[in-house]
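Posting for a labmate who doesn't have an account.
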Amino acid sequence: MARSSAHFPEPSSRGLPLPSPTNGAMYHTYRSDLSQVRALVLQQAQEAGLAEGRANDLVLAVSEVAANTLRHTHSSGTLAIWHDAIEVVCEIHDEGKISDPEVGRHRPAPDATGGHGLWIVRQVCDLVELTSDANGTTVRMHMTLRPPGTRN
């Protein structure tokens, strides 16, 4: 079952553009090598104070989404990453199109040849926002620094 967060209710406005990243966002464009994407996410997550296991989960999630850019588009992808006192947010944008707004919400069959990546992303992140339209696809992954039920 996916983690849920009282701080981040499930978005009800599917398909609407996401708000722009904060002014402090760091950007990285990639086309082939995801090692820099992973390193940047890990570095920023650690600097924000995300626990080691959750930082590794965030790296996994971002890597899965970034790999979809390489697998399903002919364009480069852009990572934006920022944090505040509550959460770390990573956003991947590319020119791809996802037609199923429910993608990744249901566990794929064990013998399925695809569909596992976004399902895994939704399992490890506190909130995943996805929009896809004529301008491309944006996947925004949120990880709270201190998940609900933990003490400061």
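Reply:
Got it, the structure tokens are right above this. The chain has a mean pLDDT of 84.
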